[in-house]
Input
Amino acid sequence: MKTMIYQVSVGKPSNLYTHCIDSVSRYCEKYGIDHIVQTTPKLWIKPDPFTSNRSKEAVSRVGCLPIYEKENAFDYIDKYDRIAIIDADIYVRPDALNIMDELDCGCAFGAVSEREMDITPKYVDKIRNYSHMQYAQLHQRGLDFKPNDRGYEFFNMGMMLINCDKFKPFLKNQTPEQFIKRDEFKDFVDGKGAYKWSTDQTLLNYFLKKYGIKTKKINPKFNGLYSAVNNINECYFVHFFLKDKLPAHGENVEELMEKINAT
Output
């Protein structure tokens, strides 16, 4: 089976990104996985200036919305059997199991359901509110986001796993740019209403639900949210997803590694 991990780190990388990407590189070498790191924008996705609700700061750093650059991985779907797309702020422990073994052959896509992580009570409240803002209206439009006492069900797209043969038909032979620029995704890209701060996460969760794509809920240990889960020391992948809440904004890597018992 031919496999690849795709990451995006555009602009000058932080100490945290460099450290995390290096951990992924070592992980790929261990399991014989190809590793591609995109360092410059390719899609140059921008919101419509006449309808966008996004702030100027959202595009000013690199001249586009870098949050959609990860979808460049779709360009490789004909060359691999499995592709994992992993955020640049995810640290992979040396003893982590092979993520490529986690997706059933019959499923097209796998990720971790955020509300099913071992999350803290404080974070339960946060994702309940977040999921209502992002997915309640989509649920009301007929897409089943399965609400419960923790809010609406959604995948955290910091780590995605794709079964290329099963996923490819849903791309309809479109390039990554054509895919993101579908008319049905315009509100997400433009940040309309509650989507002002959304990333590709909302777009992709909508996409999976709308087209009935067969998914698998991956073991939460493959996307442990730092400061939000109780069992971070048991997680194979540690996702430093809230930069503003990290020591020195994540630049003190040594301190971070001590906090997750990774020294």
Observations:
- DSSP finds eight helices and nine strands in the chain.
- The mean pLDDT is 94.
- The beta strands are 3-8, 34-38, 82-86, 90-92, 109-113, 155-163, 215-217, 224-225, 237-239.
- The first strand starts at residue 3 and ends at 8.
